[in-house]
Amino acid sequence: MSHKSPITCHVLVASVGKPGQHVDVKIEKINEAGAFSTLSTAQTNDDGRCPNLLPAGYKAEKGIYRVTFETKAFFERLGEKCFYPYVQIVFELEHPEQHYHIPLLISPYSYTTYRGS
After folding, report:
1. 101 annotated to bind ligand
2. Percent above pLDDT 90 for the chain
3. Contact indicator for 115, 89 with CB cutoff of 8 Å
4. Which pLDDT score is estimated for 1?
5. How many CB atoms lie within 10 A of CB 26?
6. pTM of the prediction?
7. What's the whole-number mean pLDDT along residues 19-34?
8. pLDDT confidence of residue 22
9. Is 66 annotated as a binding residue?
10. 77 is in an annotated binding site
11. Average pLDDT over residues 17-23
12. What mean pLDDT value characterizes the chain?
C-alpha cells in the first residue's frame, strides 16, 4: 500500500516526452548545524513519479530541503551520456500544511524545475 508524501517529485525526460522511470532520489533536510541530513531515499515509479518520497507518517516541518536525482545512472541505463551526473534541487518549505511537488524535466544536457502542484 502506498501513501502520499507531503513532498513529492516527478521526472520527465523532456527530450523524448516520456517519464523518467526508476530514477534514484534522495531527500535531505538541513539541520541546526547547517549540514544536510538524509531523511529518505526512493525511486521514481513507471510514471516517473515518487509519491512516497518521505516515509509514511513523516510530518513535514519548516526548513530547507534538498532533493537529489541520480541522472547519470538513469541515462547510462538508456545507453546515453549526460552532462549532469546528478541534479540537486534545494528549496525552502515555509508552509508544512501544504503539499510540495518538485518536478524535474531532464535531457542529457539540460534540466528545468519549478514548484508544481
Report:
1. no
2. 84
3. no
4. 43
5. 18
6. 0.93
7. 96
8. 97
9. no
10. no
11. 97
12. 94
CATH number where 90 lies = 2.60.40.180
Q: Would you list the DSSP string of the chain?
A: -----SEEEEEEETTTTEE-TT-EEEEEEE-TTS-EEEEEEEE--TTSEETTSS-TT----SEEEEEEE-HHHHHHHTT---S-S-EEEEEEE--TTS-EEEEEEEETTEEEE--B-
| Structural domain total, the chain | 1
Whether 41 and 75 have beta carbons less than 8 Å apart is answered as: no
Residue type, 112: T
User: Nearest CA to 102 among 2, 15, 23, 17?
Assistant: 23
Range of the domain at 57: 7-109
Evaluate whether residue 90 is within a structural domain: yes
Q: Is 46 a domain residue?
A: yes
Instruction: Decide if pLDDT at 43 tops 70.
Output: yes
Q: Are 48 and 11 in contact (CB under 8 A)?
A: yes
Per-residue pLDDT tens digits for 64-96: 999 999 999 999 999 999 999 999 999 999 998
* ∠ Cα 34 37 43 (to 5°): 140
Tell me if 115 is assigned to some domain.
no
